[in-house]
């Protein structure tokens, strides 16, 4: 079963930039870290994406534009699905990649679902 993401999760773009994600809720936590909702991923930023070669018309992965997988069907907070360690999707980068980001670590191993 996939683990639920928390604010201790490590999420990276294909260019090895690390996302900064802020939790919008604090009602559900694991080991003191708030669980991330799918909507939280859509507000994540990537301050250190290495996709910056202007001579190749590259643009960095500034933010997540879509979550294609990894939304829990069983666990939600205030009606919004929690994010799972199977989450992946696209970013604002250019060129556009089919899967531009994915979870490296859920930030915890105690709570899983789906």
Itemize the secondary structure elements and their pairings:
Layout: E1 10-13, E2 29-30, E3 33-34, H1 38-41, E4 64-77, E5 80-91, E6 101-105
Antiparallel strand pairs: 1-6, 2-3, 4-5, 5-6
Question: Mean pLDDT, as a whole number?
Answer: 95
Order of helices and strands: EEEHEEE
Q: Uncertain segments of ≥5 residues (pLDDT<50)? A: none
- Please outline the major beta sheet: 4 strands, antiparallel
Structural class designation: mainly beta
Proportion in helices: under 10%
Radius of gyration, in angstroms, nearest whole number: 14 Å
How many helical elements?
1
Task: Explain how this protein is built.
- The protein has one helix at 38-41; strands at residues 10-13, 29-30, 33-34, 64-77, 80-91, 101-105.
- The chain is mainly beta and 114 residues long.
- A 4-stranded antiparallel β-sheet has the order 1-6-5-4.
- β2 (29-30) and β3 form a beta hairpin.
- The termini are close together.
Keywords, separated by commas or semicolons:
single chain; 114 residues; mainly beta; 6 strands; 4% helix; elongated
Question: Summed up, what is this model?
Answer:
The protein is mainly β. The protein is 4% helix and 34% strand. The protein has a four-stranded antiparallel β-sheet with strand order 1-6-5-4.
């Amino acid at each position: 079963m996939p683990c639920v993401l928390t604010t201790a999760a490590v999420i990276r773009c294909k260019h090895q930039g690390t996302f900064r994600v802020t939790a919008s809720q604090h009602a559900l936590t694991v080991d003191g870290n708030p669980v991330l909702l799918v909507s939280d991923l859509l507000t994540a930023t990537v301050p250190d994406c290495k996709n910056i070669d202007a001579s190749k018309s590259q643009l960095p992965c500034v933010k997540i534009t879509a979550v294609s997988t990894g939304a829990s069907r069983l666990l939600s907070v205030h009606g919004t699905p929690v994010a799972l360690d199977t989450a992946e999707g696209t970013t604002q980068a250019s060129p556009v990649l089919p899967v531009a980001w994915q979870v490296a670590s859920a930030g915890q191993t105690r709570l899983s679902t789906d």
